Amino acid sequence: MTSSASPTDSDAFATRAIHAGQHFDPTTGAVIPPIYQSSTFVQDGIGGLRGGYEYSRGGNPTRTALETQLAALEGAAHGLSFASGLAAEDALLRAALAPGDHVVLGNDAYGGTYRLINRIHGAWGIRNTPVDLTDLAAVEAAIESGTKILWVETPSNPLMAVSDIAALAALGHRYGILVVVDNTFASPALQQPLALGADVVVHSTTKYLGGHSDVIGGAVVLNDDDLHDKIRFIQFAAGAVSAPMDAFLTARGIKTLDVRMQRHSANAYAIASYLQGHTAVERVYYPGLETHPGHELAARQMSGFGGMISLALSGGEPAARRFAESMRLFQLAESLGGVESLVNYPSEMTHASVRGTELEVAPNIVRLSVGIEDVADLLADVEQALARL
Ligand SMILES: *Cc1c(COP(=O)(O)O)cnc(C)c1O
User: Fold this and answer.
1) Do 135 and 284 have their domain in common?
2) Among the four residues 58, 74, 83, 384, which has the most C-beta atoms within 10 Å?
3) From 90, 101, 164, 182, the catalytic residue
4) pLDDT digits (tens, 9 = 90+) for 350-381
5) Ligand 1 center to residue 85 CA distance, Å?
6) Mean pLDDT, residues 177-181
7) 228 and 102 in one domain?
8) Buried b (16+ CB within 10 A) or exposed e, 136-145
9) What is the domain range of residue 121?
């Protein structure tokens, strides 16, 4: 079912995040729309659909509520919700590409995105060139006659490189290329890629949108009606849809996105500032620090710097492993964007699949997903882990 504009057409992000698509139930007055845990829908005579629903792979009211909310978050006409971020990306790639086409993507793209484009779509004749997205001349040089997608991720994972969405969109459009932004790390609370000129936004809603590490999901958000229809058809025909309970959990998480991102950003800034002054730390990757090469651009393009920090330990791989394994409040786990803080050792965890490729992550790098716990407790944990090196 296609998303429709919310009657709550507030310009304010926090209001839209809570109200778009989330209308009270007209039959009972329940403030929260019900979870329609139903695979199929009764027809009033053959083909007599109530509200357009027929079978939940094609559409389910709980998913529609989330899809309307997702579109509103990015100020877009259409939102589509999938079973995972990669399922969302896969549907978009299949809708936009044909064998022989070429994709330009960041050389520090999310490992799973690279694996999907390189190995799955690569096997069907899609070619790709990873490139440094902060270098516009390098991006332009990577464009070929068959290039159909410029895939942007900013800030990037795990090195938090910031690339210029407006400039990349303008460059891509000069060559007639679809410009896609993976907005997972910033979230729409901090960054609005469509307003900056991008064509499509994708999300792993597993991360900040869901926000509570309890559901896997993904989204595609866009304005173009034809491309939307193609992706909608793939969603229906291939079936990687989000289940009603998952859609409900994601919609519930989104309602607090705005306040969570403010707290994630404040906590991360405090921790990044502390790390920067520590002798055991060789380098801190956080766009909120003035020393970060993308700081000015991030300040212009984002309304906050987010909750993700990476750091390079002076003591190399042994120090990085020891630091990651010594943390207590920060739990050692993949993923990010939840209310609880996590620590990840990319080269053997999240980025193990890109070892030996251009996207390999150095063994002295540790990534932190800073949660919304009390900042003094988080700082104390960082301090005690550094003291063990
Ligand atoms: C996690 C992640 C994905 C993949 O999403 P899943 O929900 O795990 O399938 C894509 N992009 C980024 C930036 C991510 O962090």
Assistant:
1) no
2) 74
3) 182
4) 888 788 887 789 999 999 999 999 999 999 99
5) 5
6) 99
7) yes
8) eeebeebbee
9) 8-254
